[in-house]
Amino acid sequence: MKKLILMLMIVSSIFAETKQSRLAAYEKFVRVVNMIESYYVDKLDTTTIVNKALKGLLPNLDPHSSYLDKKSYKTLKIETSGEFGGLGIVVGMKNGVLTVISPIDDTPAYKAGIKAGDIILKINNKATLDLSLDEDVNLMRGKPGTKITLTIVRNGKPFKVTITRAIIKIKSVKAKDLKGYPQIEYIRIASFDKNVVNSLKKILPKLKSQGKKGIIIDLRNNPGGLLNQAVGTLDLFIDKGILVSQRGRIKSEDTVYKAHYFGTYKNIPIVVLVNGGSASASEIVSGALQDHKRAVIVGETTFGKGSVQAILPIPGYKDEALRLTIARYYLPSGRTIQARGVTPDIIVHPAKIETQKEGISLKEVNLKDHLKAELAKIDHKKIKKQNPKKEINPANDLQLLTGANILKALIIEKEYK
Question: Tens of pLDDT along 138-155?
């Protein structure tokens, strides 16, 4: 009965109606429930009917709202902890179909070649078109080590991919040298989980001593995460002004997040990489840095998820909740990213770079090591392997290479000022 009352309250809050028409709507709903209990082919109790009604109602408000039963609510609580079970794939409903927002770095889905924008048509043998987002997600989860087959549609063509489920451990932040660009630090943020700001606070103080004069922040295929981590990240690079705001129906709950005046790395040039898999918190970070003219954004237009979902526990049902859209995010300039995304300053589509090879071409820094290796081959001797610092090579990544060249120009410009 409590859930029936909750259902009626939700209907009431959605439709601003007269008292008489509201009571008529409540009466109609109760009558339908009674009819289902009396005539439906399978016996259903009131609780089951109301639960099914809630599952149908929330996604019909918008693709990001949902009713969380005990299992879904428990799963949600551990998803932002940095470790959970599944495929390592973030999905959402776009144009009414189950769509990949992004695969998470180094997970089974990522290694299987799943890409942002892929449509998931079937999960094993079950079509996704008539299922809710939560039902789709629950189907994809399972015991680690078990296999699942997804039917993917990419560029209009369907194909099947079999993936083995695993415990997903996310290392949200990775810092590496950029090959050929010794003054640039490459920072990959895979998702905005609870560890991001603390990880950045460990990386950033070391940059000056390492001779770094610019940062590339890679947010491609970053599906988002925690708002406080996005705000905390922005606060590291912006010293004053609005970072992001949220506005909803209840004006008293509108919130403006502003930068603090301490601990800011405000002078180091930044390039941010984004694509269609960059969503939510990633769009807040890239959009705010763009609005403050604090970074150059490179890549492709982002996903366009700028709505705020609150997890509202259902009174009297501590293990159940609603994920309800209560507001929209607005960037410092006042623009919204909902359904629009962030358009990069420099649009660059992903591509591999072909280089022409004419014999052996060696830079001076590599010449000695190369000659030592060749000498060892001639003399049939083994040489001790070096352990170079981890670095990423932009040679086959046009977006990264473009970002590195832009950042190099910004560094040069700064030095000549």
Answer: 889 888 899 999 999 999
In a domain? residue 239: yes
Q: Domain of 282? A: 173-347
Q: What is the rounded distance in angstroms from the CA atom of residue 297 to the CA atom of residue 399?
A: 11
Q: At which of 169, 202, 221 does a domain end?
A: 169
pLDDT digits (tens, 9 = 90+) for 61-83: 988 899 998 888 877 776 655 55
User: 48 Cβ partners below 8 Å, 6+ apart?
Assistant: none
- Residue 141: count other Cβ atoms within 10 Å of its Cβ: 14
Task: For 17-40, write each residue's pLDDT tens digit.
Answer: 577 888 999 999 999 999 999 999
Neighbours of 44 (CB within 10 A): 15
> Are residues 91 and 151 both part of a single domain?
yes
End-to-end CA distance of the chain: 71
Domain final residue pick, 169, 189, 219: 169
Entry field: residues in the chain = 417
Residue 408 resides in a domain: no
Q: Is residue 275 a contact partner of residue 220, using CB atoms and an 8 Å limit?
A: yes
Q: Are residues 232 and 273 in the same domain?
A: yes
Q: Which residues are catalytic?
A: 280, 291, 305
Domain count, the chain: 3
> Phi, psi (5° rounding) for residue 362?
-125, 135
Instruction: Tell me the C-alpha distance between 139 and 137, whole Å.
Output: 5
Segment 116-145 mean pLDDT: 89
pLDDT tens digit string along 249-264?
888 879 999 998 777 8
Same domain, 291 and 189: yes
